[in-house]
Amino acid sequence: MNADPTVPATPPVSGRVAFLGCGSMNEAVLAGLLAAGTPAASVTATVRRPERAEELRGRYPGLSVLAEQEDPEANRKAVAGASVAVLGVKPAGITALCRSIAPVLARQTVVVSVAAAVTVATMEAALPAGQPLVRSMPNTPLKVRRGAVGLAPGSSATESQLAAAAAVFAGAGTVVVVPEEQLDAVSAISGSGPAYAFYLAEAMAAAGVGLGLDAALAMTLARETVAGAGLMLAQEGADPAALRKAVTSPNGTTERAIAAFDAEGLPAIIAAGARAAEARAAELSRELG
Questions:
Q1: Half-sphere exposure (CA, 13 Å, Cβ side) for 111?
Q2: What is the CA radius of gyration of the chain?
Q3: pLDDT of the residue at 72
Q4: Model pTM?
Q5: How many helices (H) and strands (E) does the chain have?
Q6: Contact 63, 39 (CB under 8 A)
Q7: Are strands 147-153 and 84-87 parallel, antiparallel or unpaired?
């Protein structure tokens, strides 16, 4: 699997999957897993509040959801006998969660962390020795089955256990395997990347208003243009440079705009943003220790 970093799409994960914590990211993973064909009855989720549990049950019929405020043992009950346990609580709570579920984890349960910045070593120290662990870096387009996910296996994870973790994500996007030291770079490009695209759409809409367009019209044009360009990029074999050149007629309006972007240093600005995101991810890892 590591020879080719891209993991091919796999059938729905076998066995039961537990999602511990179901905020926006873990719900995106959950939604993608269900959309890929995994039955809701084979998935258990835990949340803090009963109201959130009811919300998820209504959104995903057949899903078992346990609320910690009603049952303090919710997380332990969810992981008992699970094939894969996806940890989606906030980074500051990951170590405590690992310690809490450690006594009831089956030896073969693959623990998958969705929390940013918490290292494999930190989690392995809080889990039973030899527990298979995979650290992930997904992004929110999993919700629309166009996500990108980086996976880094722990020291005890086998190829088949890594594949089991990949199966949780594979139906909802592209899964790649990277060394853990590259996860911060993955986070800077694909983890934070959707926000960059949304930021671009905001800036395009604002530019349209500056050119005299109605605000609602400018937003519609910017939104649909960015979304449509994304779909073109999603086509097999698509090359962003080739697509850009195809729209850029010599001495035309687009060529003039691209020249202005280059003159303003837009590529360097984007690179600086990615470096800042990567650096902050490393800082968070050190802070969480």
A1: 31
A2: 21
A3: 97
A4: 0.91
A5: 12, 9
A6: no
A7: unpaired
Q: What is the pLDDT of residue 10?
A: 53
Spatial neighbors of 129 by CB under 8 A, at least 6 apart, are none
Tokens of 90: 């906030």
H-helix segments, the chain: 24-35, 50-59, 74-79, 94-101, 120-126, 159-170, 183-186, 193-210, 215-233, 240-247, 253-263, 266-288
Backbone angles phi, psi at 87, to 5 degrees: -90, 115
pLDDT under 50 in the chain at which residues?
A: 1-4, 8-9
Handedness of CA 228, 196, 32, 153 (dihedral sign): positive
Question: Hey, how many other C-beta atoms are within 10 angstroms of the C-beta on 137?
Answer: 27
pLDDT at 14: 82
Q: Does domain 193-282 have CATH number 1.10.3730.10?
A: yes
**Domain range annotation of the chain:** 6-182, 193-282
Give the burial class of 287: count Cβ atoms within 10 A of its Cβ; 0-12 exposed, 13-18 middle, 19 or more buried: exposed
Convert the pLDDT of each residue in 128-181 to its tens digit.
999 999 999 999 899 888 999 999 999 999 999 999 999 999 988 999 999 999
pLDDT of residue 105: 98
Reading the block at residue 95, the tokens are 């170590």
**Model pLDDT, residue 172:** 86
CATH no. of 6-182: 3.40.50.720
| Pairwise CA distance, residues 145 & 185, whole Å | 22
The predicted structure's pLDDT at residue 12? 58
User: Residue 8's pLDDT is what?
Assistant: 46
Reading the block at residue 49, the tokens are: 């509040």
User: Residue 15 — φ and ψ, nearest 5°?
Assistant: 80, -175
